[in-house]
Amino acid sequence: MAAMTRLFRSSSAVFSIRRSLSSAAATEFKPQPSPPRVDPKARNVQWVFLGCPGVGKGTYASRLSVLLGVPHIATGDLVREELNSSGPMSKQLEEIVNQGKLVSDEIIINLLSKRLESGESKGESGFILDGFPRTVRQAEILNDVTDIDLVVNLKLPERVLIDKCLGRRICSQCGKNFNVATIDVKGENGNPDIYMDPLLPPPHCASKLITRSDDTESIVKQRLAVYTEKSQPVEDFYRRQGKLLEFVIPGGIPESLPKLLEALNLDENEEKESATV
Ligand SMILES: [Zn+2]
């Protein structure tokens, strides 16, 4: 770990980002940080995306990474890639997964460090992390390895998450995913109204829809409870550092993405500019 820490500390990219982070440090201990204005050309962000299962975290993280020109690094993908490779950790990982054990923090950090290091050697800087850190311990290790300047916590009310999961359908013939739920929830306690259209299947799929066996109300609730229990301390960890930005998703991606960009101080022009790059 010490060697790895040195490696990251000595990297010039980390130092240049560290300098530009001084404005973020000033927002410490505010419950809702206002993110520093980001110029994707001058500075690359080091962000973490948190969010419970079903919130669409991967989709938002991936859209933002394209917009900002930083890699979207999902630790689940790193584990899968290593398993499918002949890399030094693939054998060890295979044993762990075959025995049904959890992949340790050390292995995840190791994979993540390798990924950041190889990206940096290819001229990458900045990242959006998805699926990491999951525990306070991981967050502390990450703190030692690199700087995180903002943690975006994507949220939806539990009722919406449950209805979204219960509305999921898969076409048994072509395997495409649909959603038959119409979400229409009035916002309470200052939260926005939430409206999401269903994603209905074309006629040739409509008669072949099936539901995943684990998309029942009790299993979905259990999944959310497990997530909340584990994520709460991680959210608190970043909230104490003034880095947690809470964002309640107000609808489908077309309506929500511009609002998320606004909350992140990124405007439409930057989006268009980067889309043409
Ligand atoms: Zn189909």
From TrEMBL:
**What is one Pfam family matched by this protein?**
ADK
Among PROSITE patterns, the record links this protein to:
ADENYLATE_KINASE (PS00113)
EC number(s) for this protein? 2.7.4.3
Q: Name one GO molecular function term.
A: AMP kinase activity
Catalytic activity from the UniProt record: AMP + ATP = 2 ADP
Kindly indicate whether the keyword Kinase belongs to this entry.
yes
Q: Check the record and name the InterPro entries matching this protein.
A: Adenyl_kin_sub, Adenylat/UMP-CMP_kin, Adenylat_kinase_CS, P-loop_NTPase
Q: What keywords is this UniProt entry annotated with?
A: Kinase, Nucleotide-binding, Transferase
Q: Oligomeric state and partners?
A: Monomer.
The UniProt family comment states: Belongs to the adenylate kinase family.
Protein name, entry field: adenylate kinase
The organism is Salvia splendens (Scarlet sage)
Q: What is the taxonomic lineage of the source species?
A: Eukaryota, Viridiplantae, Streptophyta, Embryophyta, Tracheophyta
